[in-house]
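Lecture notes, unit on binding sites. The following record was shown on slide 14. It pairs a sequence with zinc ion.
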Amino acid sequence: MHPGEVRIYTCGPTVYDFAHIGNFRTFVFQDVLRRFLRARGLRVMQVMNLTDVDDRIIQNAAAAGVSIREYTEKFVEAFLADMDSLHLERPEEIVRATDHIEDMVTLIERLQKKGMTYTSDGSIYFRIATFPEYGKLSKIDLGGMKAGARVDTDRYEKDDARDFALWKAPKPGEHFWETRIGPGRPGWHIECSAMSMKYLGDTLDIHTGGVDLAFPHHENEIAQSEGATGHKFVRLWLHAEHLIIDGEKMSKSLGNFFTLRDLFAKGRKPSTIRYMLLSVPYRRQLNFTADGLTQAENSVERLRNFYARLKSEKFGDGSNPEIGKRAAQAEADFDAGLADDLNTALALAAVFDLVRDVNTAMDRGEFLQQDAPRVVAAMEKFDTILVLLNDDDAERLGALGFGPAKPRMGAAEVEALIEERNAAKKRRDFKRSDEIRQQLTDSGIIVEDTKDGTVRWKYK
Ligand code: AMP
Ligand code: ZN
């Protein structure tokens, strides 16, 4: 819509818990998208929302006896830290639903004025029958839709289009906002229409999300936005297929999920997970397995070893023009792969073909010292999108509190500390004896004072 610039809206996480790697599949795809657009010389203006109000958040916050902001804050922080660990660039704007209640109220008022809504028990619904194009994105069949059938929750049955809540009347004991359209809180869909148009204009270039959002969430966004403005809402929808595990979609509600932190705690590295998530093109389902992770780890190692070899090995003097040509070909293939609807599998094949061919040339003495900078440049170009070459996994893990494992305290050291503690007790220096006990506990040693005055200990 704007020369030289691409405006993207991304449905962000619902911050009621840690995001899982299925969610991150979609966020990694979006990172590849924005990095590729920039590599093509375009400016990117991406807005991502944080859904920080929904049924579950309200319930969980009430159960914990804290405000919505307090409850969601730690998951917002965790999400941003998780993004950093995978080298996901921050969108230009990250916006919270609860900071945009006024914008949502204004949008609902516009729809009210156009007669596209009705009120029932204090809640305001979008009347789908007033938007004949409803269903055009997901091609949903509205044949089975009952006139006036409504849905009130933030979770939806698949394949069942119904009038949806724009604004929900407060339930007893629940948090609500006092507004011009009455007390209550926004439905889930209205936040994305209100925030995307506020920051990006009535018509967006690209709107992204996982495929589960196409219906009803994005269908409802279209109805709200186009209903209010009369303009096309989104020119290009990009939906990532799901990450699946044991044949099922990874999801919170099925309980079959891993967070990034679960995998880090098992010794997996951030670069491994980034590679695994980006290696399958977003239009294809990604089957998550432990073997897949191990292969991803090996692939990253291969890239890093090759890069190190380029930079440190000494080759014969001169240059081989074939190598320069080969690097240029790889760059063209990489770009063409991504230009083909972000086919990351093709793009990675171009990289690994180059690695193989150059390794072979090196082994045969056909790679010369002055060829190195050209191939380094190609690898670094790929890496503006892949972001895998720099071995910073330990640092990334450290930032999330996954330090290198401490070596276990040796038995001799344990015995010595216990003896010192006994001596401290004897001279009634309880401060010191408590300190030593704490030190042992912190080191994973369980100390037991037995009745007969002896001390037993074991590893936790
Ligand atoms: P949520 O926090 O549930 O609102 O989801 C955040 C993003 O993750 C949305 O774009 C979802 O479509 C996406 N998502 C959820 N589960 C998966 C999955 N198993 N694979 C890929 N994307 C997913
Ligand atoms: Zn959304």
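Take-home: The two ends are 61 Å apart (CA to CA).
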